[in-house]
Amino acid sequence: MAVIKEQAGPRTGRHPAPAARPKAAAARLPVVAVRAVPLAVVAVLACAVLTGCGAAGPGPGGDPDELIKAATRRLTDACLVRQGLVPPSPGPGRPPGSDDRRVSEALFGAGPAELSLALPTGYVVRAHTDGCLAAAQQRLYGDQPGWFRASVVVNNLEPEAARTRRDLAEVRARHRAEIADWQRLRAHALTEATTVLDTPPPKGNPPA
Question: Residue 30 and residue 184: Cα distance in Å, rounded?
């Protein structure tokens, strides 16, 4: 899922909605432009969203966030390969004929974003429902739009508290339903990620 985070003014960018822990929600994520970006930017953003590029997947008992990232990477890589595209990786050595824009759009989606959520911080966060990342999130979380909403809210609890001058506990209480959704969907993703990593799909075909 590619996310566009906007505030009043001309700056826009795409932001992944990571599986952050609700007790220590992420504040602001770096702005990364995606349209016609160089390969280096695509690779860095893909690594940040999916998992450390080239890193081995965690074994049993590994960190849950890393497990989900590893499964997401496996699904998105297979999705790109199925389309005849080379998954992004850090560093030089991109194969000849690689189409960076096609890879970006295939991974993060293209055209107007279908999902949108306005935050009390003044930002509007948008995301696509197409693309390999959105498909992987649908596979893992079982509800990609629901995960988008829950994760965006949870990732912005602390900024909301600062902007509205409320205590963080009060803000968390106001978003009790979103936090519950986050926990439910993340638990689902952890189970699905274990299945994905334990039963590798045929080459170029992610699990249905």
Answer: 27
